[in-house]
Records
---
Amino acid sequence: MSKNILVYFLLWILLLVLVDVNCQLTPFKPSGLFRHTTTLIDNELYILGGSLTSNYTLVKGFFYLDISVPFNTQELSWQDRSSTINKIPLHDGATSVKGGANNDTLFLYGGLTNDPKMALIYTFDPLHSVWNSQEIVGINNTIRRQSLTGVIDYNGKFYLWGGVTSNNIIVNEMLILNTINLSWRKGSLVNAPTARYHFGATLLPNNKIIYIGGGDDITSKFNNETLSIGDTALSLREVYIYDTINDNWDTKNTTGEIPSNRYGFSTILGLDGQRIIIYGGAFNDSGYGDYRDSSLYVLDLTNFNWYIPKITGKIFPNSGGKIFPNPRAFHKANVISRYMVITFGVGYDRKAESDILLLDISNNEEYVWTTSFDPSPSPSSSSQTSNNSSDNSKMVGAIVGSLLSGIFLSVGSFFLYKWNKNKQNQNHITRTVLIPHSYSNC
Ligand SMILES: *[C@@H]1O[C@H](CO)[C@@H](O)[C@H](O)[C@H]1NC(C)=O
Ligand SMILES: *[C@@H]1O[C@H](CO)[C@@H](O)[C@H](O)[C@H]1NC(C)=O
Ligand SMILES: *[C@@H]1O[C@H](CO)[C@@H](O)[C@H](O)[C@H]1NC(C)=O
Ligand SMILES: *[C@@H]1O[C@H](CO)[C@@H](O)[C@H](O)[C@H]1NC(C)=O
Ligand SMILES: *[C@@H]1O[C@H](CO)[C@@H](O)[C@H](O)[C@H]1NC(C)=O
Ligand SMILES: *[C@@H]1O[C@H](CO)[C@@H](O)[C@H](O)[C@H]1NC(C)=O
Ligand SMILES: *[C@@H]1O[C@H](CO)[C@@H](O)[C@H](O)[C@H]1NC(C)=O
């Protein structure tokens, strides 16, 4: 009798393990999208808003990827959080950062929307899964902007320069949101670059922000097959530097292999803090695929020299001749661990390429396209040590978890085997299927 109870118990455990495995096999599958925002908060990379690449309509999407565990870009375990965004109108072309008093809040600014009631600023608290619209004090700022890249500094100030207003005016205004006490302030425009949108912007270790490229013609037509936009993109020969401490602008002429004019590309800071890596974009029209000069360039910040880096690796495990990814436009890029992590965008075939591209940038002599993500910090980056202990404990948890599951599985199978043998002798055992409903809502 007690043996039977043990058998049922083990069967139940087996079922739990199976349901758990099944959950992991059927994660949330997002649609192809672009003009979304990405925000890295602790171990979660959040993707919000954007438009569908299939028919250019605004999408209601909010989901994240857990980056504390290894993953393969062919099998992404997205976690859906769209049930939390019922209060946020559909939008694209917004900009977002991690900030706030505890430096753990998602701040969403602006965006293109059909809803006149959409607030200028929303915040999301991941701990409690709560969104709020925020009233900001200081200057009277009611003008919504979109297609800009906002940048947060090391002190929680969110710099919002350029972009397009809801009246389709491209601006060069600098607004600064203090995400800690929720107040606005204006930044200097002396020597600021000309008004533009879809430019690249990245914070440098010296508290300056670099602004690169962009467009200034609202009428430019984007071709989603060739990624061309007519001859309407701005030059990357000059780059613009905003000093967040002294509130002033500087312009630098660049040298070397200057990328062709482009907008809608992504920019990140290299792991050594001495270079900017740009990827993709929408390009000058002079013939199909002007972007073939290269979709990936590096700007050396020590001498403002552009170069094309050496890149190896591949993005397809069974690549039929094709090795490197297609360029993408209106995607996003984040630095996570040792990778440039590129998310979604226009210009790739989703049946052939993953929504996520990983470029291992830990070696400046050779960047490597890869399909597998390893969360352990890069040997060459000293700044990413803050979350190590929790990473490790999660890792240990995962290992212990799989060990335990393994043990249960083998012990379970052994008993199943014995149970089956017994069943052949005693026909009076009735089977009950237990549905562990509290575990089935994955
Ligand atoms: C766009 O595509 C989505 C998903 O396929 C669909 O739900 C929506 O109705 C489409 N919108 C239009 C305007 O075609
Ligand atoms: C803020 O500016 C808008 C438009 O410029 C104006 O309609 C509104 O009255 C202003 N609000 C305050 C509190 O000054
Ligand atoms: C918030 O965290 C980032 C790292 O994710 C750090 O660079 C920044 O300085 C922090 N901001 C504040 C105000 O502590
Ligand atoms: C917010 O903090 C800044 C300093 O970081 C200060 O200059 C500003 O006056 C504060 N604003 C409000 C409304 O408290
Ligand atoms: C381009 O957009 C059209 C819809 O406007 C869509 O059907 C097509 O799949 C898109 N092509 C690519 C390469 O994204
Ligand atoms: C685009 O490329 C063509 C051919 O190289 C060139 O003549 C034209 O000036 C370029 N336009 C811009 C805006 O760079
Ligand atoms: C950049 O180069 C142009 C000439 O190509 C020159 O007129 C300009 O003064 C230079 N700007 C800077 C900041 O050196």
---
Amino acid sequence: MAAIYLDNNATTRTDPRVVTAMLPFFTEAYGNAASTSHSFGWTAEEAVEQARQETALLIGADSREVVFTSGATEACNMAIKGVAALYRDKPSHIITQVTEHPAVLETCAVLEQNGVRVTYLPVDQYGQVSPADIESAMGPETILVSIMAANNEIGTLNDLTAIGAICADRNILFHTDATQAVGKIPIDAEKLGIGLLSLSAHKFHGPKGVGALYVRRRNPRVRLITQMDGGGQERGRRSGTLNVPGIVGLGEAARICREELSSEHEMLAALRDRLISGILAEVEGAALVGHPLQRLPNNASIYLPGVDSDALLAALPDVAISSGSACSSAAVKPSHVLTALSGPADLARSTVRAGVSRFTTEAQIDTVVQRIASETARLRRLTPEILVPPGVFQNA
Ligand SMILES: *Cc1c(COP(=O)(O)O)cnc(C)c1O
């Protein structure tokens, strides 16, 4: 059997149209976008500005609000450290949630060592943070709220409208790590009252190693201390020769998502639901993890009681899905997201994540359902002492 890729929350296949758009910028059009004295530079600069426009359009921004980075990790660092540095001499406080990506959590942990106070809010059983909790955590020293749009492990969406409104009301800057949401659900940074937004091309069929930080320009203008000093590219916000082919790829990926988002959303959700209902029908006690409705169209996180997810993955080498230790698979420890959900004790050990994409087929879904069902049954026979409590995780 040809390998089936369902790990689209980890990364996605670069769309062939994106590759085609990028290629000339490796070969003939290899100029430095900062070279202003010749046509090689102008061509590169023009392509970068077009990509900036496309990136802005996808998130409801103005192109001058887009700063290109090496990805979402850099964008989150630039945003959070850039804001904290502004308040370096004053007591300051940041509000975030326990289920953020390490790009946010580890950045906050570093700031804590430098004296910044950080509140890590809990989430409910679906993985959603309560906007009311955010509001109660706010105080006179709060400089930033950093809450992700969609969770990379369980697909749960946060209520950005409510959170943005609270932040605007209290005049507190709102950063959202929207890496999983951009290109999958409509996001309008301007309307949502977002001050800073991080995104990454490789999560929506663009190339790896390129992303962007949206920095609001007005109502109110967001100020940041530069984290990367040098030649002054990106209006001095992020120095370094621009990754022109990568940026062109980001722009093309953004254009495709913007034009196809509404039709693609339904197609992805249908595949996702086929996968979820297939597994829930075939595997006794299986349950959906995360919010049943407020979730990414492409993510299915499924609890398989009595099954060690890493053993299941090992038994399915030709199916690319991931386990509860997904985002920290270098260090094997249970997922901080799954452990935050107050579910059954073995939730983190027995949950698998599958993500569909525009390249996934129904036939692939059906194959994966059958493979997961048969391997789950085999693993349960091997360890019959693990009781399967049916429907133990009814809340999902
Ligand atoms: C993938 C991901 C990141 C990191 O993005 P990179 O571009 O790979 O650095 C950050 N946050 C979330 C939610 C992600 O899914």
